Amino acid sequence: MEMNHIGEDIYYGEIPGFTPGTEVTYWISATDVNGNSMESQHWSYDIFNPSSNSILFLYNSIDYGSFIAHYYLGSNDINFDYWSNYYYGPLSEELLNYYTTVLEITGSGPVMLNNEFIRPWFEEGNKNYILSGNEWLDTHWGHQNYYQGDFEYDILGVWNGIGDINYVNTGNQEGISRILPIENDSISGPIFEFLGDSLDLNYDPNYELGFSNWLDAVEIVDGFNNGFDAYSGIIDSNGVPWEDAELYHIAPYKKHGNESKSVFFTFDPLAVNTSPEYNWIGFSDLSPIRSALDWINGSHLADTDDEYVVSSFQLHQNYPNPFNPLTTIQYNIPKSGNVRLSIFDLRGNEIKELTNEFQRAGLKEILFDASGLSSGVYFYRIETTENTLTRKMIFLK
Fold first, then answer.
1. What are the structural domain ranges in the chain?
2. CATH 3.40.50.880: does it fit domain 55-296?
3. Which of 25, 53, 182, 376 is the residue whose CA sits 20 to 30 A from 147?
């Protein structure tokens, strides 16, 4: 494409439009009157192409690239589209109309506010909005009141924002805050079960993400639930909150009258871990983000009418059986906890460990590939802290 000379040393050119999904690479080349040529570096951009996915992962931060979305979601079993406020610009009504769920992460601080686009989309009904991250509330290190008609009040359930409670009492931005899940809560209940009497839950963005700790708190509008609490200040060298620490709410959520659902975390969910034994809760199936999505989708154990609730520990017969070389193993676990599933030969030798990790309660399945094994009879065994079950399967080449 030839550029136009519009005065002095200024040249102008316009890149034509392309179809969605196209990666556009462009550069500038120039040739002087003596035939000497020079070429600039190459730049690239993508033409956004909305898919059939119902979730938009909205990264409203400059901290990381698109890869970070997979850390927040903690698994490859969630399909989503990715949008960056920093690289792609603001949202639009046209864009939001492709999605029923928006998951907005603001990292160490938002690039821009999306309220003017989120609100009309959310108020259409049957929409889901999860917002989380440091410094979203513009509290100026103090209290900020919100009122009916404000986005914070109506959508997020905040009537008073309390900034940087990590500094209250004796604290600093490099310190670790103690946060508390709530027993039987629809979002944080599974984490409460996992902690038991031996573990504590911490907010440690400096360690996990390289961010400062600016933990905000909120006073919640009547009718909203709260998923997590937090102590003011930071924990001391013994892992204990200060003696005069105060307890605050940090996670309002609600199913609204128009069937839309909102969840607001005043912290960055990826920066949540445990002590004294370390578990990176923010990057696991127990993460607050995964729990919020479960609640939104109606697949959380706290919802008693949930079709996914199971009442007994079961190990199902693999299918197909006999198989060659792939087969699926399904099992039910009625209580969240560590699950180990392994394959054994007829002599009792362990052939392969398929999983050994913390899993949420519910119906699960794992694909087993027997390539490389000899034909014959094998056993698969599932173990939890409370139960063990074994079944037989046949591999025929």
1. 4-46, 55-296, 314-395
2. yes
3. 182
